[in-house]
Amino acid sequence: MKYSLEFTSNFIHPQHKLKFEYTEFPFWCDGCKEIGIGSKYKCSTCNYHFHKHCALPCASFVHPFYTKCCFQFLERPPGLVERYCNACLKRVSGFMYHCSSCGFDVHPCCANLPMVLDDGELKLELRSKMSAVCYTCGKKGIGIGWSYRSTCKKYNLHVACVKGMLVEARHDLYNCEGGTVKISSDTGIDEFKKLDTGLPSLKAILHNFHKNSMRMHT
Ligand SMILES: [Zn+2]
Ligand SMILES: [Zn+2]
Ligand SMILES: [Zn+2]
Ligand SMILES: [Zn+2]
Ligand SMILES: [Zn+2]
Fold first, then answer.
1. Rounded average pLDDT over 126-145
2. Ligand 1 mean position to 123 CA, how many Å?
3. Structurally, how many domains does the chain consist of?
4. Ligand 1 centre from 34 Cα, in Å?
5. pLDDT of 140
6. How much is the CA Rg of the chain, to the nearest whole Å?
7. Which residue range(s) make up the domain with 98?
8. pLDDT at residue number 179
9. Is the Acetylation keyword given for this protein (predicted)?
């Protein structure tokens, strides 16, 4: 996906220009209503914030997990019943991709999840089902929803747990004093690209979250 500093999206917000911004604070996307961090597009007139992939959606796309589906981009869920994302199992209330023939729904951020998360030490692969207890939240999620599984098979994680974890970990990473990431106004666009795909140590995050959820259970 390309980065442009300013553009008008005839698709999602034709009224005003959207400006690229980089934020180290989590924000709620006015498109898909999900949390985001890092690259975003902002309309200063309406004070709207959009994920990069929500500001630049594809009209339709095919996902490798559902090759028979043709997902269409919609600004809101169709019909009157509540709809849930096939990937993270959370409610869909804004921008979404919908397959009209089988009724599958996916959040734009779930549709754009990387197939592999690799920090050089641990490799997590995206899978179309969950086959064990989630290492992060300790809950079962067998069969339904997507998951990330480490190649060593030790870690099974709900997609929703990974999404939340990464936002928090990135937030900590940007904010820790003397941390690896420094953001200033003259940080180049290539730098942002690196930040968006760069990962904090997955093992460290996993252990942190594992400890926290264990503490909550006792
Ligand atoms: Zn969004
Ligand atoms: Zn606007
Ligand atoms: Zn389908
Ligand atoms: Zn989702
Ligand atoms: Zn979980």
1. 86
2. 26
3. 3
4. 6
5. 78
6. 18
7. 60-111
8. 41
9. no
46 and 99 share one domain: no
- How many Cα neighbours within 13 Å face the side chain of 134? 26
Neighbours of ion ligand 4 (CB under 5 A): 85, 87-88, 107, 110
Please state, in angstroms and rounded to a whole number, the distance separating the CA atoms of residues 51 and 196. 12
Q: Tell me the average pLDDT of the chain.
A: 84
Average pLDDT over residues 98-117: 94
**Same domain for 103 and 194:** no
Environment class of 134 (CB within 10 Å of its CB; exposed 0-12, middle 13-18, buried 19+): buried
Which residue type is seen at 14? P
Taking the centre of ligand 3 as the mean of its atom positions, its distance from the CA of residue 53, in whole angstroms, is 21
The three-state secondary structure class of 164 is helix
Give the number of whichever ligand sits closest to the CA of residue 107.
4
Ligand 4 center to 197 CA (angstroms):
19
